[in-house]
Each structure stands twice: as C-alpha cells, then as structure tokens.
Sequence to fold (103 residues):
Amino acid sequence: MTHVTTTVKPVPVYDWGVSKASLREAIISNVVRLLREEREKRGFSMNGVAQRAGLSHSIVSLVERDLRNPTLDTLLRIAEAIGVDLGEVIIRAGRAASRQRAK
Fold:
C-alpha cells in the first residue's frame, strides 16, 4: 500500500467584519463610480462611450447609475472605450471599499 502526503497551502481570507457579498457590492459600486469619473475627466459622453464600446446608451446609463450589475464583458468594453486599465480600476475600487468598511 502506498501513502501519498500533500501539503495544503492556506488560502488568505479577507474579513472586514462584513459579509463577502456586501464587500463585493461595494467594490462593484466603486468600479462603476471610478469608470464614470474617468469618463467625465476625459470628456467622453455616455453616448460616445456606448458607441465606442458597442453597447447601448441605456446599458451604460443603467450601469453608471448603479441600477444594473455589469458583466465583466461590459466593464471591459467601457474601460477600453474610455482608455483605462480595468485591472487598475478594480484595485483602486477594492482599496476604496476597504477604507469605507473600516470607518
């Protein structure tokens, strides 16, 4: 009989005293807020971003007003249309959500 032994690496757990769902929602809201701020800072209209991203104006509007949970594809399209790195936006959004939860 052969015995196999493996080592399990611990998985980091993020616990800010709030549910993971609540943290995810805060991060998504911050991603959307940051994308809207970048769009405005760069002088793009919602219509312009929608056209460049291949999305409808109503989808961009619903996402920006936090009335629709965007898919990853939608976020990638919007970020590309604006000219920002979605990965960097997500990192910034995560930091902002953490600061908001710490208050």
Summary: DSSP finds five helices and no strands in the chain. The helical segments are 20-41, 46-53, 57-64, 72-82, 86-102.
